[in-house]
Write a structure and sequence with these properties.
6-stranded parallel sheet; 9 strands; alpha/beta; Glycosyltransferase family 61 protein; Rossmann fold; 13 helices; globular
Length: about 325
């Protein structure tokens, strides 16, 4: 009944929008209403009671779940957290973190116990604090003579079809020719065995061997994991350690871009389509994660232009 009422309100206010977009408006209202039942425990009694449990995809966990958990930690009300494998280091602040899930599910995204899920028309959020990954994971191990530039790629199934937003070998070559002389470039595209899988299949771009042969100066994240000089517990842990020492990122939308937005500096994101465009996530949400400057490219040509205008300009300066 409540969902029907909220759907009607959204229809009246936003009836011109596509129905698949209106669902996110309704879900935001629903999440806000759910939080009302915790007013006394969150703001008056403030005892440790909150059990945050999430099995959804990587991006919404970074965007909404982790900041929600961190808010409860700082508020003194976080009791424990539960998530997927390889997430313990992300919840370093949790009094007790367990990993009962070995797969991420789309259904797990719709956890209405969070103040927000997926996309939202309103990012002026309460009960949300960015997690200080950079401060916590900065280290003296992954430091180099030149400043680090992370190229964080992905090549996955998107919306049940072929990959849409990714850095092709042609684009990678263009970027590297522009930046290789002035940056220590670290390339990161996790293989399936490095991460907790979700509903999106990972395909092979065959770029790792090409990079080793054509650009041997580029450091592959997977090779850093093989060496594991920082004694990382898992690939996510390694990413946090390496990213914490960087402030220049070129990334792809989704969890790849979200993680890269947690470490300040500049993050150039390629996103060719998605609800993020309608909700203007890259300018309203992503900068909140660390104060990073977010640049959204919608095409391969825009990526090239931004690399020329921003990264090449910084090199010249």
């Amino acid at each position: 009944m409540l969902n029907k009422l909220l759907s009607f309100i959204v229809l009246v206010k936003y009836g011109r929008l596509p129905i698949d977009i209106r669902y996110f408006y309704r879900d935001t209202y629903y999440c806000q209403l759910v939080q009302l039942k915790y007013i006394l425990r969150d703001y008056i009694f403030k005892r440790k009671y909150k059990d945050i449990d999430f099995q959804g995809e990587f991006a919404p966990e970074l965007q909404f779940v982790l900041p929600f958990a961190y808010w409860h930690y700082k508020n003194g009300t976080l009791k424990k957290t539960e998530g997927c494998t390889y997430t313990k280091e992300m919840y370093f602040f949790s009094p007790a973190h367990s990993e009962p899930y070995d797969i991420r599910t789309e259904e797990g995204n719709y956890n209405y116990e969070m103040p927000r899920i997926l996309y939202s028309q309103n990012y002026d959020m309460k009960k949300w604090l960015p997690v200080p990954f950079k401060q916590y994971y900065q280290n003296s191990i992954y430091k180099y003579d030149k400043p680090i530039l992370i190229i964080a790629n992905r090549y996955n199934m998107e919306w049940g079809g072929q990959p849409i937003s990714f850095f092709s070998i042609e684009i990678l070559s263009y970027i590297l020719e522009k930046v290789k002389g002035s940056y220590t470039v670290i390339y990161n595209r996790p293989r399936p065995h490095h991460i907790t899988m979700d509903n999106s299949d990972i395909y092979d771009l065959n770029e790792h061997k090409w990079l080793e042969e054509s650009y041997p100066e580029v450091i592959l994240m997977e090779n850093l994991f093989k060496e594991n000089k920082g004694s990382a517990n898992n690939f996510n842990h390694l990413q946090l350690m390496v990213y914490a020492n960087a402030d220049k990122f070129i990334s792809i939308h989704g969890g790849t871009a979200t993680l890269a937005s947690y470490f300040g500096g500049i993050n150039l994101i390629l996103s060719k389509k998605g609800p993020e465009h309608h909700f203007n996530c890259y300018h309203k949400l992503y900068p909140k994660l660390s104060g990073a400057k977010i640049i959204h490219a919608k095409t391969d040509d825009e990526v090239k232009n931004y690399v020329d205008e921003i990264f090449a300009k910084e090199i010249a300066a």
